[in-house]
Amino acid sequence: MITFVIVLPALSAVLLGAVYGLYRLVFLHPLKKRPDMHQIPESDLYKAYRDIMLDAVSEMESASYEDVSIESSDGYRLCGKLYNIKNDAPLVIFFHGYHGVFAWDGYGFFKICRKYGMNILMVDERAHGKSEGSAITFGVKERYDCKQWAEYAAKRFGENTDIFLAGVSMGAASIMMCSELGLPETVRAIIADCGYSEPAAIIKETIRKMRLPVQPFYWFIKLGARIFGQFDLEEATALNAVGKLQIPILFIHGKQDSVVPLSMNDELYESCTGRKKRLLIEGADHANCAMTDYETYEKAVIDFLMENKP
């Protein structure tokens, strides 16, 4: 009995320590670990596009912009850069991916907006860039932030400005999930580039690719999110949201995506019962569709935007 009394708390402490360690690894993104936009990661995803990305960073820094911010529903200051390219033009609100930077993930959208005279708001998602918060929630809380950015834009620019939501990877999943929360009437359409179907599904997929057993690792990660982050990984899914979508959506995905499987895009496209289009980019890996085949990307995006202007 004495041994049991001693051993049980020790095992519980070890388990809790493991859960917290995984929580820190997967979800926490403190300010000191956030990359500078000039520090292009040394990964196969970006290796071939390093010069393009650095040129994009330089272009975004030299262009005229306004620093803007809102407060999230849970009290964090969220930041973004508003590029007012042409007065009274449509507005694209862009959301980047997990551990991403809008200057990298938003290469295609920024270039398109400048060329065609549309305004663009490039958002630092919570726990990224200059935005407050330290925990990334894979879209569970980010979806509310997306809605608030849309409401901010609708209020600021008024009923005569068409708004389009665009995102890459986690940003794409977040805007799909936010669509079921109720958006301003001036939000005309969504462009989701390499978004995943469910937060839980992409975490399980990553565990498999690391050659680890999905269980107990996913269970520990989910528990850590509940205990330390106060959110449920299975609370919302893009798959469920697009099944109720009332506005048009363009799904984009790289055929060689090594992070978010193409099968997730298939699921999302098939589940969407509203107006939809799809673009699959040959040879594109994760989050680099625009850099792999910009001409095809540009044509698909601008055609879709023009089709969905009232």
Walkthrough of the structure:
The chain has 310 residues and is α/β, with parallel strands linked by helices. The chain has helices at 2-27, 50-62, 102-105, 107-116, 142-157, 170-178, 199-209, 214-228, 238-242, 262-271, 289-292, 294-307; strands at 66-71, 77-83, 91-95, 119-123, 163-168, 187-193, 249-254, 276-281. 44% of the residues lie in helices and 15% in strands. The chain has an 8-stranded mixed β-sheet with strand order 1-2-4-3-5-6-7-8, with helices on both faces. Helix 5 crosses helix 6 and helix 7 crosses helix 8. The longest helix is centred in the first third of the chain and has 26 residues, at 2-27. The model has no long low-confidence stretch (mean pLDDT 93).
Distance between the termini: 74 Å
- Total of DSSP H or I helical runs spanning 4+ residues: 12
Low-confidence stretches: none
- Spatial sequence of strands, sheet with the most strands: 1-2-4-3-5-6-7-8
Kindly identify the CATH topology of the largest domain: Rossmann fold
Task: Calculate Rg over CA atoms.
Answer: 20 Å
Helix/strand-derived category reads alpha/beta
Can you tell me the number of structural domains? Answer: 2
Q: Could you give a short account of the major beta sheet?
A: 8 strands, mixed
What fraction, in percent, of the residue positions are helical?
40-55%
Overall pLDDT confidence: 93
What is the architecture of the largest domain at the second tier of CATH? 3-Layer(aba) Sandwich
